[in-house]
Design a protein that fits this description.
This protein is of the alpha/beta class and 169 residues long. The protein has seven helices and eight strands, in the order βαββαβααβαβαββα. A hairpin with a 2-residue loop joins β7 and β8.
């Protein structure tokens, strides 16, 4: 089963260290994040959305926001809608950039939370990426006993109560 966390869990764990300001307080924070790599939506904003992965947070930096400002309002709305149709869990805007009302209106329609941070885009990626990788890493639970034999670890695994500890002893 693929692991996931919600935007709410991300906020609980990293809101302060990432310096996040919630611009859409009414948005759905129970949205699942399933992909460990944040994405910059440059190509998607240009119209190429075939490779957009759902469950992946989107990070808008100076380049993405400047590109949106260069477009007509109707085209901005169209491009954001195409991107937001791909199960975007949350949007982060870096460098404390201004987010226009149309951007927030479209995000609200899709119930996508939008957060702003004072951090630069590169620094934001460096802080968010390790957290998501750890939170979404695959895990395995085993019953076992570990022994150190001349510096080599031996792991005895098996069903509970089968006698692993006695074998180690």
């Amino acid at each position: 089963m693929k692991r996931q966390i919600t935007v709410e869990v991300l906020l609980r764990d990293r809101e302060e260290s990432l310096g996040l300001e919630n611009l859409t307080s009414e948005a759905d924070l129970s949205r699942p994040i399933t992909h460990p790599d944040p994405a910059s939506p440059g190509l998607a904003l240009a119209g190429f959305t075939e490779r957009v992965v759902g469950g992946r947070v989107q990070v808008f930096g100076e380049t993405e926001m400047a590109y949106l400002e260069s477009l007509e309002a109707t085209l901005v709305d169209e491009r954001l809608r195409h991107l937001f149709h791909h199960d975007v869990p949350a949007v982060f805007v870096t460098k404390e950039l201004e987010v226009d009302a149309q951007f927030l209106k479209t995000a609200r329609e899709f119930q996508i939370p939008v957060f702003r941070t004072t951090m630069g885009t590169g620094q934001f990626f460096q802080r968010l990426n390790p957290y998501l990788e750890a939170a979404l890493a695959p895990t395995v639970s085993l019953h076992g006993s570990l022994a150190d034999v001349y510096g080599v670890g031996l792991l005895f695994v098996g069903e509970s109560g089968i006698g692993k500890s006695e074998c180690v002893l």
